[in-house]
Amino acid sequence: MMIKINRGEIFYTDGGAGRTVVLLHGNGEEHTLFDGVCEKLRRDCRVIAVDSPGHGKSFALKKYDYYEMADGVAGLITALSLERPVLFGFSDGGILGLIIAYKYPGMLSGLIAAGANLNPRGVKATPRFLLGVSNFFKPDPLLGLMLRGPDIKGAELAGIKIPVLITAGGKDLIKEKHTKKIAESIPGAELRILRGETHSSYVKDAERLYDLIENFLEANIFLEQVTPTRNDE
To answer: Which residues of the chain carry a pLDDT beneath 70?
Structure first.
């Protein structure tokens, strides 16, 4: 489905009943990343899987910018009248989740940010170097996005007042000390480093991702809150 916000149209799928969970994919991906976990989550939740601005069927961007993308997702949440959803964001989607959480206080009731970083220096040296080389020989606006941004400050994260879970794989391309810094900067945030997992392995595994999200919901009593049913995707 498409919904129009002031920046353009955003594509999303919508199904299930219960507490609303918004799912945001990573750089260069689409909502289809979550097809498997959506099916499982919809047994207990209303699930909104989004094509982030500049991706999939959502509106194009003249220049990729994390903050404009985050504003677009916030616009979708407002346009759909979602009442304080829980947001799960992977990689760039996790970055957008962090930005929304501090820029729009009160919009979310919980956040899981998986494999996110606050700035390009949070990416390990080798993958960051390879991204730079690839972008030099074949410029790509999505690679350029990762090389120049984001620029999130610890002081901004300190203002987040909702339950937050920060995750990363033990073999992630994000530096472990950087992931720990994110969690330490958010009051009360929980940190989980998933040993043996890569940047994306546990996110692409529908069963593992379902368990991760469900455990977060149950721990924070979100499943007791019910929102309207939608099954018209």
So the answer is: 221-233
